[in-house]
Amino acid sequence: MEAAQSDRGPAPAPESGLAGYFKFAERGTSLLTETRAGLTTFLVMAYIIFLNPAILKAAGIDVPAAAAATALVAGIMTIAMGAVSNYPLAIAAGLGINGFVAFGLVLGRGLTLPGAMGVIVLEGLVVTVLVVIGLREAIMNAVPLALKRAIGVGIGLFILFIGFVNGGLIVSPTGGVPPVVPVYPTTTAHFVFLLGLAITIGLFVMKIRAALIISIFVTTIIAILAGVQTLPSDLAVTPSFATLGQFSLTEPFEKLGFLTAVLVIFTVMLTDFFDTMGTATGVIAEAGLAREDGSVPGIGRILIVDSVAAIAGGAAGISSNTTFIESAAGVADGARTGFASIVTGVLFLLAIFLTPLASLVPAAATAPVLVIVGYLMFTLVKDIPFGDVEEGLPALLTLILMPLTYDITVGIGAGFISWVFIKVVRGKFSEIHPLMWVVAGSFLIFFGQAWIQGLLPK
Predict the structure, then answer these.
(1) Taking 80 as the threshold, does the pLDDT of residue 277 lie above it?
(2) What percent of the chain has pLDDT over 90?
(3) I need a surface site. Which of 62, 114, 182, 389 has the fewest CB within 10 A?
């Protein structure tokens, strides 16, 4: 046996330290490659530091403090993802959910910002429990694929719509007829938005690595030079963390009522479910680390960190944090291990020192980025079978009602109810998962609650 071993040459020495923990040799990578790829992921994600506060600003949040908390939570949770899962996945405030918080919960349903963040914390706690007991994947499997995709597409349309509203080119007229109207550019702010949109699209189609963050900075400078954005006299130089701990777990039930609060939490949970699973499986498959059947080894570690990130985002007052599809940029640059995520997370923490500048960034600079992000999420529409009325009609109701009503809950509810109804009409009871019955029935009560309350004795 010893002779045979010597014929083959000495066995390779096992890796130790960082290389051993992150399995550099096993995955065919190196410290330099992982570091460079982690920087790439940060550059394509850094826009969220300014975009998340810009969306939550509509709900009255302190923008510099929200930017600091956005960078802080993204940094900590991305480092945790890299260390715990050993996959090149990065985490930050989820787009779509933050819009739902600002426009759906605060402006739409009358919650305070802490009350809306309480919804996020509760959703994160529920998801964490479901991961621990192994039910998260089972619940995901109960929802039809077309509806899963329609949720992503609808959120994309919602984000794109918010972009044009924030850019000032779509408004609600006096009297509300029609509900929205286009505004043709007449002001300097309009032209700055359009110029920013042109810059953003140009950089994006040229595949510039940091296209979105570059467009935000360039458009902000243009806005300042054009007089659209003024320089504050009391610009802070020290990061503020005033949003940390600003959440209430009781307000959602007190103001919304038990059923509405539960359905709102369920809606956010569904969005988090599909976003994370789709992103994680897609990015890891691109990295060549998935099994032959497409499943991900150790998916539970990814899901638990992602679930805790939702809690952390709500507790920090800056909305749910989730795994970002932009992680694919790092994979394309060679990332194969969690060390790339460690690098990305550290860069987010360092970026905290730039967050006092967030108050300088006008809506005209962030709105163009919303349009591009909305487009990217909308591309899932190609995989929805609209020719099949059983799948296509519920999907259409899901994706179109989100932007039209400024409410993700309404879109998801309409999709679930119509899907179950069509299956019942066609006699396909066996295709309806028990969970779909329960959720569709709950949404029926949700939509009819005002009528039901009117029937009850006073």
Answers:
(1) no
(2) 59
(3) 182
